[in-house]
Specification:
Strand content: 5-15%
Helix content: 25-40%
Number of helices: 4
Largest sheet: 4 strands, antiparallel
Shape: globular
Mean pLDDT: 91
Distance between the termini: 48 Å
């Protein structure tokens, strides 16, 4: 780890931790991450007993050299973007910890657990109401979106 930036050291540590003790149903593509520490692909399985049981998803994490002080850019990629009220058909995720509520105390593992929880608590598979408009007009980088968060429990 000599010659690594603080950001790279943190990512290397998180990668090793995720490979050794991944959350249930979460695996990191170590080969991709080891080739480029700033770009990871994480595979996620839908939790049994939920609407997404048996489904497979891929998350792409892109990190800046300011990580962990700057949040990662996290999107769903691949052939199966989950149909969920907070996931747009282009893979963008409306989740406060990915932007406004990011903290350097958070990690890739905690982001994955939050996304698993978000999917697991879903009661109806549907896209966000503004999906078509958003996908046509959004920035390629979801971190540049000014998200409007609201409480789903109301």
């Amino acid at each position: 780890m000599a010659g690594m930036s603080p950001s790279e050291r943190r990512l290397q540590k998180e990668l090793m931790s995720l490979m050794k003790e991944p959350p249930p149903g979460v695996t990191v593509d170590a080969e991709i991450a080891e080739q480029n520490l700033l770009h990871w692909i994480i595979r996620m399985e839908g939790v049994s007993g939920t609407l997404y049981e048996g489904e497979q998803f891929e998350l792409q994490f892109k990190f800046s050299n300011k990580y962990p002080f700057d949040s990662p850019e996290v999107t769903f990629v691949g052939n199966n973007i989950p149909v969920h009220p907070h996931v747009y058909s282009n893979g963008h995720i409306c989740l406060s910890i990915l932007t406004d509520d990011w903290s350097p105390a958070l990690s890739v593992q905690s982001v994955c657990l939050s996304i698993v929880s978000m999917l697991s608590s879903c009661k109806e598979k549907k896209r966000p109401p503004d999906n078509a408009f958003y996908v046509k007009t959004c920035n390629k980088n979801p971190k540049k979106t000014k998200w409007w968060y609201h409480d789903d429990s109301v």
